[in-house]
Amino acid sequence: MTPLLGAQKRVLVVEDEEALLSTLCDELEESGFTVEPAVTGEEALRKIREKPLDGIILDLLLPGGMDGLGVLAQLKESEQTKDIPVVILSNIGDDEKVREALDQGADAYFVKTRYSLEDLIERLRLLFQQKPAPPAQRISP
Amino acid sequence: MTPTPGSTTTRATDEPPPTAAPPEADSVSSEKFVTLTAHEMQVPISVLSWNMGRLNRVLGTVSERPDVRRILDRLLEANVRLTTLVEDLLNLAKLHEGAFRVYLRPIQLTEVARRCLKTLEREAERRGVVLTWSWDQAQIPLTRGDPNRLSEVITNLVSNGVKYTPRGGRVAISIRSSSELAPPTVPIPAGKTRTGKYLLVSVEDTGMGIPNDEQPKVFQQFFRGRKAFASAEGGTGLGLYLVRRMVEQHGGAVWFVSREGYGSTFFFTLPVAEPYPEGAEATKSA
In terms of domains, do B50 and B161 share one? Predict the structure, then answer.
C-alpha cells in the first residue's frame, strides 16, 4: 500500500454496516489517512460541521431519516462544504442511481463488489490528493 | 470470420418458446425472494472480498508456505464465483422486471477490456492458461456503450474461455474495426442493416469446444452443456444469456463458432460512436 505523501488527509467514512466500516477504516488508517467514522446521515452532517475534512466516503442506504443522497444535497447547498470531494461507495450499481449521484455533485461513484479494497483505496488516495479541500470549510451547526 | 471445417456458427437468438400463462403468485414471491436475497448477499460478499484481500497481503508478506498460498487462492477464487453468481441473479431479476437498462455514451472499449483482463490474468495464470490480447489502439474508434455492462460481457466470455480450457491452452482476445454487424452466415434481426461501422471483439480459446447438438441452446437461460456439468466448474447457465441480452441492448450482435475438442471463438459487435457535436458536454461517468 502506498503511503500518503504530504500532510495527513482527514476523511469521513459514512457506512452503516459495521464490518464494512471497520475494514474500510483500518485500511484507510494503514494508508496514512486520519479517519472519522459515521453510521447515519445525521451523524455524518454533525461530524462535517465539527472538523475540517479532505474527503467524504458516503454510502447511499443509511438508517434513520437521511440517506446518502440527502447528505450529499446538504453538503452541496452550503458554500462551506460544497467543494469537499465526495465519493459514493454503494452496493447499488444501477446506472440511473450513479447518474443521479453524479448529477448531484458526487466526484466519483464506486460499486463495492466491483472493486478490491486495494484498488479502491488507491483511487480514493488519488482523488483526495488531486482535489484539495477549501481552506475554510467549517460551518456553523 | 469463416468457420473452420467441422465447426458451426450459431447466432444468439435461440430462446425457449414464451409461456402465455401469467406467473403464479408463488413464482412471483420466489423471484422477489431471490432478488432480495441477492441484494442482501452483496454486503457479506464485500466484507469477505475486502478482508480476503487484506489477509492475502498480510500473509503474503509473512508466509512463503505453498499451502497458505493455495488456501488463499481457493478463497479468492470462491469469492469471485460468489460475486459473479449474485450479479447474474440481480441482472436476471432486472430482466424479468423489465428494469434492465444500458446507458450508452461514447467510450473507449479497449480501456474497459484492459481493466477486465488485468483482473482475469491472475486466474488464467493459476490455471496454466495463456491469456493474450491484441488491438491497434490507433485504429479503434470510440463505441457507444455502458462500461459496466460491457465489462460484464467481456469478463463473462473471457472467464468462460479460461475455465473450459485445459492447462497449457490459450485464450486470445482481439478488438478491431468491422464493416458489418455480423457475417452473412449469422441472421440479424428484422429492421437492422448488416453493413455499418462496428467494433468486432473476439474471444478465442483452445478449450473443449461445444458439441454440435448443444450449440443452438448455448444462449438460452439456464443452459449448461454436458461437459460443463461434468466438469468441476460451477455455473448457473445464466452468463451467456445475459451476454446476449446486454450486447443486443447495445445494438450489437453475438455469435460463436465452435468445434468439439478444438475450441470455440465467441464474437460480438458494437456500433461505433458518432463523433460528439462541437461543444457538447461529455457525460460524467463512474
Answer: no
* Disruptive mutation site among B39, B50, B75, B103 for chain A (greatest number of A CBs within 10 Å): B50
Q: What CATH number does residue B174 fall under?
A: 3.30.565.10
- Cα–Cα distance measured from residue B200 to residue B179, given in angstroms and rounded to the nearest whole number: 9
Cβ contacts of A117 on chain B, cutoff 8 Å? 49-50, 53-54
- Contact state of B43 with A111 under an 8 Å Cβ cutoff: no
Predicted model pTM: 0.68
Which residues from B are below 8 Å from A108, CB to CB? Answer: 286
Same domain, B43 and B123: no
Chain centroid to Cα B126, Å, comes to 20
For residue range A64-94, list pLDDT tens digits in order: 889 999 999 999 999 999 999 999 999 887 7
Total domains, chain B: 2
User: How would DSSP label each residue in B196-256?
Assistant: EEEEEEEEEE-S----GGGGGGTTSTT---HHHHHSS----S-HHHHHHHHHHHTT--EEE
**Closest CA–CA distance from residue A121 to any residue of chain B (Å):** 11
Residue among B200, B135, B125, B113 nearest B162 (CA) = B125
User: Could you give the ipTM of this predicted complex?
Assistant: 0.77
- Which residue of chain B has the CA closest to A96? B103
Pick the last residue of a domain from B97, B115, B132.
B97
- Among A20, A27, A95, whose Cβ lies nearest the Cβ of B148? A95
Range of the domain at B32: 25-97
Last residue of a domain, one of B51, B76, B97: B97
- A67 three-state secondary structure: coil
Residues of B in contact with A112 (CB under 8 A): 42, 46
- Domain A10-128 homologous superfamily, CATH: Response regulator (3.40.50.2300)
Run of H or E residues at A96: helix A95-103
Find the CB nearest B286 among A23, A109, A117.
A109
- pLDDT tens string B10-35: 666 555 544 445 555 566 677 778 77
Identify residue B222 by its one-letter amino acid code: F
Q: Which residue has the cell 488456501?
A: B71
